[in-house]
Queue: 3 jobs
Job 1
Amino acid sequence: MPGIDDRLTPCGRLIRQYDSDRYLTALFASPDRREALFALAAFNLEIAKTREVVTEPLLGQIRLQWWRDALDEMFRGEVRRHEVMMPLAKAVERHRLDRRQFERLLVVREFDLEDRPPADFAALEAYAVETSVPLVLLAYAVLATEPSSDGEGFANALGTATALTGIARAVPFHARQRRLYLPADLMAEADVAGADVFALRPHDGLARVVASVCEAAGRHLETARQIAGSLQRSATPLRLQAALTAGHLKVLRRAGYNVFAPAVQRTRPLRIAGLLWRALLGRS
């Protein structure tokens, strides 16, 4: 009997392995829209990992240019034979997805190649917006069965909350690569140096910086959840994404914002399933 993985498309397998939150929430989309969500998430994953897979900025620029060229061709009706671009082209055509959102996702990834932290919290928040909000807007365009004036506000709030939470949780991952995404001004105020983070050990000042980021994420998430009730039922995957983000923030808070705590980095399938179930019942 074929397993779940055997029935997944290449994009689905990619997201299942590397972006479990979006994979799980996409499963709650109607089958005729699910592959479009997988394709969007796979595109985002491919461009987001650029800094991780290159050894110097020029190579990163070349990689991002490949994706720009592929998008240009796709919007002209010429689709590259690539496991992400082919289903992405189908999603764009069927759901009339906005090219500008793809371009926003590409442009912001140039910042990753600079290997310098955001100067202040405003810069971090701007980065969070550009790396995540366009993706939520595109996902909402796939899921929405009719136009809604609340969609953009929800996408802005959820996307920002999700990105800020992800940045906080990813501090150890980035530190192993000697990269920092926490605001330089908050780091200085908390008397935290890059070397302190790269040591991969708990630090009181670092916990204070992470707490500030998470508190901002929580405010954006609360805005998203206030809007979520007015969204169409077809937007359930995005409401569930909000529930998972709330769960991640709760774990961070319980850990005292120590990003190196095992509980923060551990994936708990049963806990995630419980969060999703509570969200579906309206108890999130």
Job 2
Amino acid sequence: GSARNPGIPRVPGALQVWRQAVAGRHDAVLLGSAGDQVKHLLHRLSRGEFPKGTTPRVIVLLIGINDWLQTPKVTLKSPAGLARIANHVSGAIARIVALLHHLSNCSSRIIVMGILPCGSVKNGRGLQYSWPSLYTKPINLTNQAIRALAETHSGVEYLDCGKHLLNESGRGMNKTNTYDGLHPSAQGYAVLLRSCLLPAVAPYL
């Protein structure tokens, strides 16, 4: 999915976290791509990027934030615009899930992560750690649709790890777990893996 996955090798200390928590225990592969939007992932999967000859026990999907980051701010402030983009993103995620089912011969458990929170990035006003932020409504709308998708499809489940990137009050991004209000730090990856993602996939391994 998104850059929050391939960022692991680039964030200082994050690769060590990945190796200790995942790579040393499980046969896992990261297939995220920086800047990926839903259309890009659909394209890559349709062109053969899914590992051939494999049937993963679990597939974890995280995608969608870059679609919102590339949306004009005037659209983000329009109810009609929000609904249009949310339908586009969630509809594409549904197609990705269907394609993953097909590519895995309907044998893999698919865990669709809710889009993680992020501050009002790139605004030049020091609000990159704000939450609620410019992206709270877009993220919530998309996550509601993802949850509904998971509830109506067997073999698919929704996973919300967002609270682990927020501070204790739930108002504001945790500056220890994210280094820029968007991407997790090494500690952020450790928390996401050990407190949310690994417990969710454990029953299927």
Job 3
Amino acid sequence: MLAVVLAATGCEGTLTGKPGDGDTPGGGTPETPEVPLTPWEAVAPPVYLAKVKSLLTGLPPTPAELAAVTADPAALEGLVDGWLASPEGQAKLRLFFVQAFQQTQITKAELVDQIGNGDSLDGNGTAQAALVANIKESVARTALVWTASGRPFNELARTRKLQLTTALMSYLAFIDARGVTDRGSVNDRYYLSLPAAERPDAGFTVRLGVPTGTVDPTNLETQAWGVQPATADAGTFPSCPTAPNSTTRALKPRGQFSRDLFNLLLGRVPDDPTYTGSGTLPCRAFNTAPQFLDTDFTDWREVTMRAPGTGESPTVFWDLATLRNRNEVVVTLPRAGFFTTPAFFANWQTNGSNQHRVSMNQTLIVALGKSFDGNGSTVPISENGLDEEHASDPACYACHRTLDPMRQFFRQSLTIQYGLQTDAGVVAQNGEFAFEGVTATGAGRGVLDLADQLATHPRFATAWAQKLCTWADSAPCSEDDPEFLRVAKAFRDSGHDFRVLAREMLSSPLVTGTAATKTFTDRGYVVSIARADHLCAALANRLGLQNACQVNGTARSLSNTLPADAYSRGAEAPVLTADTSLFFRSITENLCRTLADQVVDLGTTPRFSSKTPAGAVDDMVRSVMALVDGDARQSGATTILNEHYAAAVKAGATARDALKSTFVLACSSPTAVSVGL
């Protein structure tokens, strides 16, 4: 019944089709334009207002906002500006950016290639998780800062300045010191800088005590790092039965110097083969408190990543005291924009056969919204870097003649495992850019040359207008739609101010459905399920919970099975499930049951009290279902919830259980678990 009440929205899902083709004098069958099978009906203000505000904040509209938009639809533009700048809007926009820039969908396992030698991060679990989160969020946080200040959004393709934390600065300097080769072996900068005779005894020292957090980088081997074992007896080294009674241990990691030292920063003391127990049992590794402070993972600021000057040394990754007061990190690896970050590299690992073709293609998808398919008419200036073996087959030549010279931007700068390229023959070959009507020869700067081409490409504005449209509608806009072209032009003409793009797109009929557009003719008005990011944000913000999908283990398990926004290799469009299913219905209903225990009659001032069921129902309709005063559907929904509550009580349920059941009905209703109703 509730679905019937909500159906009269003026936003039915629309199918399209072609009338039957007829014979023509020429013997052909003329193309008949696709026409909507359902006549166009403008979406009503309560519907599109709730859609746009929920997308940006997860919150329901207010009666004042509905009155303003009903009186003047242009008022939506100003509302979008305010929602975008709100704390809830910033949180939602950050989720959009981490997906759009393809910086998520990784764990520490995907970082192994960049660390080299098959090694992974090790240490305190909390510190590891915080570092991986930093790695994922850096570009998105940068985009947020740039959006707030109106900085040219296209410059994110080539900026040498990103939002970093002290821990992330240390990690970038650590990766830089590894010297990972094409084969995955490591040329540890600090180890190899020592005279050969000193290398066997090179290392660092730990002593039992409070973590020091840093030591003098010029006297690393003569000072000791304080470590605090997580054992009952913190006065001894764990698993070291015959070690001397000293509270100090010298560690000699040899070629794994930088790995072991960085893991120490994360809270892991490595194996020490110097002391042995019974037989050949070494003193085993153990976890300790990290040298990083908690604030080292939260002190976000804009940091410049630059190459060393003449005679200048790169940043020392273990000098945390210095890093905490710096706004630059000096590295030999060229870091520019979104596509040379550890997160992007972790998502798109390459190998000796692929040789950065995937790196190049995913970069084009993110920056310009198009995947390389070999069918373009843009001809490269030269075939520099062409893989003759792969291109020997005529069927493969057309693709390789363009993609191979373009992937050379990556090869010129980076090894297969994203270390610094030092092969003189490879470095000597410049990249050749040829994509969507633009051609250019690199100037020997590798990925930095590529970054310039991406930032200045005429498709940048179109690509990001499409990304935002697809996120808002769960389906792409038609790029030949005059309204879409208008929005993309407004973004471009603004100097790529993302606030302008958000305002123009989210108040456009492309999203609101207030006017017929070519996009509607091509694919109809889409009503989508609220996927994980949207649903969890809406439930949290509407119910006043810090994280509705993480309130307990049950909620966490259920939310982990919700359809989520994602991206995949070679796909121009993100993976966005829009259709409902029995599984989605079951997950959302059970999640709502779990949340009912958190919001009904809990504590001294519960969100919904069974002592005042009528008031609780009114609140559920306005907040959870987002049907505010002025929305014609509000009255019918209120009646249904009140009748449900009364029926439950009549059937023998307690007032509390009856209100919980009523909450589940509201929480799992169409307007609560969808986008566009």
